[in-house]
Input
Amino acid sequence: MRSVVLTFALIATLAMLSNLSFGQGYILLNHDNPAGNSVTAFKVAAAGNITLFKSLNTGGNGLGGEFLSLPGVAIEENAHCLFVADSGSSDIAAFEGPSFNQVTPNFTNSQLNGSLYGTGLAVDPAGKFLYSAWSGSGNIAVLAIASHCSLSLTGSPITEPDVVADLTVAHGGQVLVVSYPGIGGAQAYATSSNGVLTALGPTLVFADAIAECSSTSCFPAGQDATDDGHFWVWGNASASGSSTLSATLTPKGFTNAALQTYSSSTVTNVEVPWFSPVAAKTGVGNLYLAASGFGQGYPAGIIVASFNQGAIIFDNSVANSAAFIAGNVQTVGISGTGSPLVQIIANLSGNVLYSYEVNGTTLTPASSLNLSGATAHSISAYPKRP
Output
């Protein structure tokens, strides 16, 4: 165990090397194992080659089948604290860098339960708070991060009107958004230096704001935003083709809600969008859409779209014939297109990490790595998208 911990600590050191800015980095995987959970780091080379790095046991249990879009692992921008959701046992494991010793005991609270569909995590860019969404108890909670990475509840959990798991903090840190897949909506909150969340306007209910939602299902899943928190995009969980939802956030709430459909796509059920580094920074560039599929006959894979200040245009898609179902996608590179990309998929034999090189808006399969264990969907990249 000592060698595992010491080796994993190299993440913090290696991430500071300049060559990581040219597409090399790490993918962190929450295995979501109900028989004893763990988190694993995989090294990804600039050309997309994936190699196993090291694993850490969390001491808790996963669900073995969380929401496809759930963000179940989070790491601070300076790699000081790593957090992993144990949704089956409704706790959060914390590890402190640079040695990445586990902080014990795991965080739990009787008001917070994620054992229905999972627990979502998002770290405050300033490293002060960990925001969490708990599907079982239907609430979100702000957790204060101590200097040694332990967690404590700040204030009272906020009761939500629907099952929650997917939440995202914009890179600027001033706004948090949580989606409501059951009622087809989303709510934005302004963050604060003391951990208080304040609702920004009313809940956006897509069926009320978009006429096409009367004939097309509009059920937001995972979401992503430009760095300034102005433009937001959601996956739209639907077996009938592929589509996304979008809106613009103002101090008074969401506006300009829209539905995008991708009739030329070869994949189905878009669950998680992900902006390329340049698109997140400037509002113009590639937008990657992780399509989870729905098993046999409903292909999974990735869509590449062009994003321009809120407008989204389909470019192409890559289906993964080996996938029974797929999870989210992450950019490993921290500039431009973010090449290479990594997506996790599940098939009858287990999980597989796939990488793709990006040339303009074209994806080329680069590498893959077979994994064992329970079905897992949640991955996160380090260094984090700037």
Q: What stands out?
A: Helices lie at 2-8, 10-14, 206-209, 277-282.
